[in-house]
Amino acid sequence: MTAAEPAPAIEWGPAGATAPPLDLDALEAEARERLPPMAYDFFAGGAHDEITLRENRRAFHRLALRPRVLRGVGSRDLSTTLLGGRRPHPICISPMAFHGMAHKDGELATARAAAATGTTLAVSLFSNAAIEEVRAASDAPLWSHVYVFRDRGVTRELVERVEGAGVEALVVTVDAPLYGHRPRDVRNGFRLPAHLDVGTLRAAAGGRLDPAATGAELDEFFLSQVDPALTWRDVDWLRSLTSLPLLLKGILRGDDAAIAVEHGAAGVIVSNHGGRQLDTAVPSVTALPEVVDAVAGRADVLLDSGVRRGTDVLKALALGARAVMVGRPVIWGLAAGGEAGVAQVLLGLRAELDLAMALSGASSTAAVSPDLLALPS
Amino acid sequence: MTAAEPAPAIEWGPAGATAPPLDLDALEAEARERLPPMAYDFFAGGAHDEITLRENRRAFHRLALRPRVLRGVGSRDLSTTLLGGRRPHPICISPMAFHGMAHKDGELATARAAAATGTTLAVSLFSNAAIEEVRAASDAPLWSHVYVFRDRGVTRELVERVEGAGVEALVVTVDAPLYGHRPRDVRNGFRLPAHLDVGTLRAAAGGRLDPAATGAELDEFFLSQVDPALTWRDVDWLRSLTSLPLLLKGILRGDDAAIAVEHGAAGVIVSNHGGRQLDTAVPSVTALPEVVDAVAGRADVLLDSGVRRGTDVLKALALGARAVMVGRPVIWGLAAGGEAGVAQVLLGLRAELDLAMALSGASSTAAVSPDLLALPS
Amino acid sequence: MTAAEPAPAIEWGPAGATAPPLDLDALEAEARERLPPMAYDFFAGGAHDEITLRENRRAFHRLALRPRVLRGVGSRDLSTTLLGGRRPHPICISPMAFHGMAHKDGELATARAAAATGTTLAVSLFSNAAIEEVRAASDAPLWSHVYVFRDRGVTRELVERVEGAGVEALVVTVDAPLYGHRPRDVRNGFRLPAHLDVGTLRAAAGGRLDPAATGAELDEFFLSQVDPALTWRDVDWLRSLTSLPLLLKGILRGDDAAIAVEHGAAGVIVSNHGGRQLDTAVPSVTALPEVVDAVAGRADVLLDSGVRRGTDVLKALALGARAVMVGRPVIWGLAAGGEAGVAQVLLGLRAELDLAMALSGASSTAAVSPDLLALPS
Amino acid sequence: MTAAEPAPAIEWGPAGATAPPLDLDALEAEARERLPPMAYDFFAGGAHDEITLRENRRAFHRLALRPRVLRGVGSRDLSTTLLGGRRPHPICISPMAFHGMAHKDGELATARAAAATGTTLAVSLFSNAAIEEVRAASDAPLWSHVYVFRDRGVTRELVERVEGAGVEALVVTVDAPLYGHRPRDVRNGFRLPAHLDVGTLRAAAGGRLDPAATGAELDEFFLSQVDPALTWRDVDWLRSLTSLPLLLKGILRGDDAAIAVEHGAAGVIVSNHGGRQLDTAVPSVTALPEVVDAVAGRADVLLDSGVRRGTDVLKALALGARAVMVGRPVIWGLAAGGEAGVAQVLLGLRAELDLAMALSGASSTAAVSPDLLALPS
C-alpha cells in the first residue's frame, strides 16, 4: 500500500469472509519506513532492555492450543459482553498517545475505523485530537483514558469533559506512578512534534498550561502532573466524580485485582503497558489466570500487551478474559494506511480470531474453554 | 541427482542393507532449486508464524532416547499391523495435494515408489491424477482421502468412486473446517497451475464444476465446498455410505479421539496438518500419548506431522502409535528424483528406522516400549 | 562523553529526579574503545567459557516481577541498614583490582564518586592507590578487602594498615583458594602495566617484596601469596586480629553461610566472583534464597555478581539481600568519565532502583517482599 | 604451535602448577587446519543431525556447581581407584580409531603422552598401530578395546593377542550392533587412507583378510564383522575367554547397567559413543545418576562423551563416576602437537580438574559429593 493508492474498500461481511489476510510484519515494516525514526521508536520501543516487550510475545507462543474437531462451526459468534453490553467481537483498541504522529488524520482515522469495525476505542488522554473531535468523527463506542493527576482540578475537569463527550467508560492507568524509562526515546531525544496538539489534555489543563506551549513543554507539563502518591483512595475519589464505569489498566496480580473489585472497578485490564513501564515485569498473559481467579466474575477482565494474532485473542479468552486490547498493531495500520489501514488491522485480527475459533472447534466465545490450552513447555 | 541422470536402481534387500543414506536437507534444497518458489512454498510452508511447523520438529528433538544394549537385534522385524492387516513397515504417505506440482509424473510416480517399497499411500482428494489412474499405475496399498463437502452429493460420488477404485480405507480430514491461513501462499498469490487437473475431485463434482475450469477456478470450487458446519453426525453419515474403514485425520486431543472411536473410526491420525492449519497448535507428538491413552487399543493410532528421521518413527511407536505418516519428505524426493526419489526417501526412512531400532535394542516394532524415551528436558 | 568534555555536574537531588538515564551498554562500549584490549578484557572477562558470566545475567532475566499498583509511592525510601548503620541506598561497590588501569585517577576517582553518591566502597587489596590515599581522597564509607595470605605476617600488617586508615569493615575473599583461569588474560598475556603500583599490598608486604618490583613481578608476588590451605580456623584467626566486622565474600551455599555466621561473620556476600573463578558455578541470585534462609537474620546478606539494572537490585532485595555490590558497571563509568562517570553509574543505578520500586509499589526497601517475584519460567 | 616448533617440555610437577592453560577451541581449530577435511570430520562429527553431540555439552552446562569455601585445599588428591588399582587422576583416554589419521606417530604418540601423564589409554581395536607396538612404545596403563565379531574366531584371536600384550582390561563396545550413520563421512566418502594399517585387527583376522587389503577393503571387512545379534550371553562367552576384567562401554540405562553387573562386568562406561551412534540418545551425563544407582557400588562406573573441561570431570565424579574418558580433545592435541600435544591436553584437563576441585572445596576425589551440583535449570 502506498500513499497514492486509494484505501481498499472495507466490507463488513460474514465473519472471516471478506477481510484480507493480515500481515502485521509487513505493515510494521511499512510503518517503519514511513515514520521518522523518533516516531517509530516511540511506538515500537519498550522499557530498558525490552525483555518484557519480547516476553509478551514468547508467553503467547509457549501456550499451545489443543483444538477440538467436528463441533459444527458453520457460523461463529464472536460477540462478547463488556460492561454489561454486547459487543460484536472481543477486540478493543488500547489507549495510545499521539496517533497524529503516525498519520495526519490521527485519532479521527482510528475512530472511524473503529466505528466501521464495531471496535471499542479507548481514547488516550494524550490523543492529539480532543475527545469531542474524536466523538464527532465517528460513532464508535469510546472509552476515555484518564490519569489521576497531581492537580486534582485538572483531573476533575478531564472527567467532566470526557463524560460530556459521551464516552462509555473510563480507563484509568494505574501502572505509571512514574514514567517508565525507554532508552530509544532517550537516544532519540523524543519530544512531541511542535505541530501536534494534545486536545483533551490542554482543554482540561485550562489556564494551568501556557496556551503557547508545544512539544517539549507539553511533555513537561504532563510529567509534572504524574502523581506517584496515588493510592486506592484516589480510585474512590474518582468514582465519586462520575457514574461512568471504571476500568483499571495495568494490574498484574490477583491480590491487586481483588482490591480493584472491592473499590468498585467495573473492569480490570491485565497489562504491563506493552512492556513500556517496568522491564522484566511478568508477561500479561502469564498473569491473566491469577487475575481471573481473584476477580471471580465480579468484574470484566481484559488482556492487554502482546496481542498480535487471532490465536492470541483466543488464548486470552480461554484463560478467562472478556476481551483484549491491541495497541501497536493499530498504529502500524494507521501509519501504513490511515483509516483504511486501521480497519485492515482490526478486520484482519477479527478474521484471524474467527478462523482460530473455527479451527479450535469453538462456535462462540462462550464455548472457548481453558482446556483449549496446554501447559507451557 | 540431476534430471539427466538415470534413476538409481532400487533393491528391496535385507533391512538396512541396501538403502542409500538419506540426506533430506539436501533433497529439500534440491527440490527448492528445481521448483518454482510458489510450488516450493506451497509444500514447505505453514500457517501464520509457522510456530507449529517448527515445534513439530523441536518436540521430537526434546524426546531423548534411552537405548538398550545386547538384545540380539540380528534381524529387525519392522512390520506392523494396520487396520487388521500386516504391513512390512510402519511408514505411510500422508495425503498431500498436487504431486503434479512437484514432478511431471505426480501421484503416479509416488504410487509406483510406494508399491516398490511396501508403503501405504493415502491419495489426496486433491491429487492431480484421478484415483483410478493412481490405482492403475501401481499395486501399492491405497487409502483415499476425503472431505465431507457442503454438497453431500459430491461427497457421496467421491466415496463411490474411490471405493470402486479399490482403496482400502478412507482418510477423513477433520481439522479443516476452514482453510488455514498460509502467508507464503498469500504472498505468492498461489493458485494451481493451469496445466494441472484434479482428477478425482473433478469427476466427483460432475456437472457442478464447469468442465473448462482450471487453476484458480478449481481452488475456488474447493474452497466453496469446505463445510465448517461438520459434526460427528457427519462421520456417522459417511460410515453409512461405505463399508471401508475410516481413519480420522487431524485429532490432537484424547477426548476427541475417544469420540472418534465411539463413532466407529477404525483409526485416529494424530496430526496438526503439518503446521498448516492452526498455528501454535500443540505438536502432534506431544499430543500422541493422551490420544493413545484415550483410544486404549480400540482403534489404530497413527502419527502425522514432523516426521523426518527414523528416530522420529521410533519415538512415535514408543509412544503407542501403530504407524506414522510422512508428507513433505516424500515431496522433496518426488521433486528431486521422481519415482526413484520417492523410493529413496521411503527406503531411507525405513533404513533409518531399522538402524534406530537396532541401536535401541528393539528387534521388532512390538519390542518398542515407552521406556525407550526420557522425559523432555 | 569524550575526554575533552568537562564532567557533568552531579547533583544529589530528590530520588529519581536528577540522575541522567543510565546506558550501561553505551558506557561499556565507550570503555572498550578507550582502554587497551588487555585492560578491557581483564575487567570484562570471566573464567573458562564464561558460562557463569552469562548466566549471572540470565538468572536475573528469568526472575519476573509482579508489580503492585496504587501503593502511594510519592516518595521512596531507598535506605537500608548495613552492619548496623543506616545507608542511603543499598548499592555498594565491589572490590575490584586496578582501577588505575581504567582511568588515571584510579581508586581516588571512584572514592570521590562514592562519597558524592552515598555509596560504600570496598577498596580492593589490589588497588593501585594505597588505602591511606583512598581514605584521604574522600569521606566515602570504606570497606577494605583482604585475603589471608600464605605469609600471615603480611596479612597481619595489612589488617593493621587498613584498620588504621579507618575502614569500617573487612571484606574477606573466600572463593579464591587458587586464582581462576581466565582465557582472555592468558591470550593477552595480561600483566599489570609497569607504571601502576599496588599501594596497600606493597606497604603490607614490606621487605618481603623487592622495592623495584613492578608489573609481572607484583602479579607473581600475589600469586605466590594465595593460600589454598585456608580453613574456617583462619577466619577465627583473622577475627582475633581486629575488631572490625568481617564480611565473607564468595559464598554460594546455605550450609557455608551458616558456618560463616557461626564463625562470627557480620555479613555474607553471595558471589561467584563475577563469573571469574569457577565457571558453571551457580548464578549468585539463584543461590541467594538458600543463603538468606540459612543466615536467618543473624548477619547481613549481600548479593554480588551480575547486577546491572535497578530491577536487579530490587530482585536481590526481594529475595532477602540487604544490599548489592556492583563491579564492572563502576569500571565502565570510570573508564568513560572518571569520577563523573562513576557517579553517573551510581546515580543511574540508584535512580533505576527508585523507579523500579515506584513501579512495583514499594515505597521503601522494607516494603520489598518476596512475592514481588514470580518463579523462573 | 606449528609443525616446525619443538614440542614443549612436559614436566610432571605439583598438581596444577606446571600445566600450561588449556585452550581446546584453539587446539581444535589448529587440528582442523592441519587435517584433511575427511579426517577432521571423521573425528569431529556425530550421527545424523548431531543433536546428541551438542546435547552432550549442553547437559554439562546445565549442571551448575555449588562450590564450598574454606575447606583447606592446600593439596588436592586427584587419585582414584579403578578396577581395584590406584590411578593418579580420573581421566582416561577413550578408544578411538585411527590416531594415525591425526598424526604420523598415531597411537604411539598417544601412548607416550599417556605414560608421561599417568593416564590410562584404551587402545582402539581400530588403532593403526598394533597393540604390541603400542605396548612397546610406552609403559602407560593400557586397556584394550574389543568388539565381539561375527567371526568368533577373530574375536578369540583378538583377546589372546591383547592379553598377551599385557593390557589390564578389555573395553567392550556394546552400543554398536550396527554402525551409526554419520552424514559427514558419507558426504566426504570417508575411507581409511591407504597408507594406514590397522595392526591389531589385521593380526587377529589372520588369513580371513587379504594381506593386500587397504583402505576401503579394511572398512568393509570391519563392517562385515559387526554382529548385531550380540546378546548378554556373548558377554559370558567373552568372560570365559579371559581373566581380564571387562568394562562394557555404551550403557545409558540403569537396568542395562544392573544386567552388566550380573554378567560379571567389572566396569560400566556410560557413553553415547560421543554422539556418533544413535542421534537424540540421552546425554551421557544425564544418564549417569540412574546407572550409578543401579550399579550400587558393585562395579566401577565411568563417564564418556562430552567431557571437555575439568568442571565436567568434577561433575561426573559428583554424580558418582569413578573416572571419565575423553576422546576428541586427545585427537585435537595429537593433531596439533603429536605426543606433546596429547600431553598438553591431558595435563591441561588434569590441571583444570585440580583447579575445579580447589575452587569447589574438595581436597580429594573422595570429597566430591553429589551436593556440589544444583538441579538443571
Could you walk me through the main structural features you see in this protein, from its secondary elements to its overall organization?
The structure is a homotetramer. The first copy, chain A, is of the alpha/beta class and about 375 residues long. Helix content of chain A is about 40%, strand content about 10%. Chain A contains 14 helices and ten strands. The first copy, chain A, has helices spanning about 25-35, 35-45, 50-60, 105-115, 130-135, 150-165, 185-190, 200-205, 215-225, 230-240, 255-260, 285-295, 310-320, 330-360, and strands at about 80, 85, 90-95, 120-125, 140-145, 170-175, 245-250, 265-270, 300-305, 325. In chain A, the strands form two sheets. Chain A has an eight-stranded parallel barrel with strand order 3-4-5-6-7-8-9-10, surrounded by seven helices. In chain A, a hairpin with a 2-residue loop joins strand 1 and strand 2 (about 85). In chain A, helix 1 runs antiparallel to helix 14. The longest helix of chain A has about 35 residues, at about 330-360. Chain A is globular and about 65 Å long. Chain A starts with about 25 loop residues before the first helix and ends in a 17-residue tail after the last helix. Residues about 1-20 of chain A have low confidence and may be disordered. Chains in contact: A-B, A-C, B-D, C-D. The interface of A and B includes residues 66, 68 and 309 of A.
